Records
---
Amino acid sequence: MAAAAIVLTTPLASAQNLDAGKSPEKLFADGCTACHRSPRGLAKGRYTLTLSWFLQDHYSASSDSAKALAAYLVSVDTPPASASAKSGAKPARSKPRPPKPVQSQ
């Protein structure tokens, strides 16, 4: 009887969201860097909504952290600049060839 009274009077433990208040960059650093070196390219052109659903189902503790992380991943999902664009060089063109000689009949 005393055990039942203790169980009934003990306050219920509430779950804590350990991701609450963290920036998306911090969420990525804490949860994703074990497998991914960079956030770039992880969104793979997905919409923020579908990406947040995926993250919520598989990786994040709450819908809010999933939405924040998805928005962050989409924002950095730009393709890397090509080497020619970085150096400012124009693409190489082939040298013009002289016209082909005309064969007489």
Note: The chain has five helices and no strands.
---
Amino acid sequence: MKDKQTERWSTYEPFHIPLGDKKIVDIIITNHARSRWSDRVESMKTGYADIAQYLWECLKEGRIVSYYRHEQDVYTIDDDLIFVAEFAVSEKDVDLLGNPLHKMIVVTFLGRMSETMELRDLRTYYSWLRHSRRMTLIKNNRKRR
């Protein structure tokens, strides 16, 4: 989803929005992210263009911030909606100085912190998930013997 409504005045640089140390020029939504969006975020506007437009507007308004300070894969919107994103260098877009611009690939939406309290501390939540899965496997293994 590129910005289709931006009017440019005689510049040759593609339109981009900074996010941390990256300059985002395009947003790509994966199939998994789209299905998680419809399950966990919103059930009305579930198209790829709707999600990408929402994320693009949030980027322009500066509402997307990194969830952790030093890690750049989990982001929040308005300190509520959590999503996971990866970045790829755009093959065709560079800024005026020749620096690479990036595509943001949205991998999944984890949900809203206001609805799921466990999302407030992701590291604890994921360690609990790993532990509970491991314990389930151990219990199932005991039953089979």
Note: The longest strand covers residues 81-94.
---
Amino acid sequence: MPKTPATPKPTAAELDLLQVLWPLGAATAKQVHQEIQKQRPDVTYATVLRLMQIMHTKGILIRDESERSHVYAPAQAQDSLQTNLLKDLIQKAFAGSAKALVLAALRSGISKKEREEIEKLLKEDDK
């Protein structure tokens, strides 16, 4: 059986860019740069474009070249990529134990509102 290629794992900077791109769905480098500048005005257009080109080469972004300005979109949906990264984290940092991951997350400090949301989800699962 042929081995499926590994899903590329984004760097921290690439994840930051994906957080901007996911809500947009698809966008030009200029549009992504404008969104990023709202939080980080120091980031240049050239930096954003280069990062998006690298992400395309790695397979993290797909690119539509049919228009003058290339339009980029995430190659994976947000929940799919997060699930893959989470599985990898559980294996590498928590010896395969999802329980250990959850306990570490809870110990790291969550707000009262987050705790209430988690409790509500757990109660719904018991039904």
Note: The chain is about 60% helix and 5% strand.
---
Amino acid sequence: MAIEVRIPTILRNLTGGAKAVEGKGGTLDELFADLDGRHPGLRDRLVDGKGLRKFVNVYLNDEDVRFLAGLETEVADGDNVTILPAVAGG
């Protein structure tokens, strides 16, 4: 079993149009590195030198990872990760 990652529309050009992809890793950072191996450029759109990019929200099983351990949040087979770009406007 793997970890399912739901991809927002704006990033689907990096996944060949896939709405969801599967990956593996022990932490969120390892998962993103694994995904970047098959979908080059994906990790760079999510992570900068300080951690998760400011305008990217990531949820592990419906919990915001910023309130967990950020990129060091542990993940396991069967988990669901959702990537959502922040929306601004007025």
Note: The CA atoms of residues 13 and 63 lie 26 Å apart.
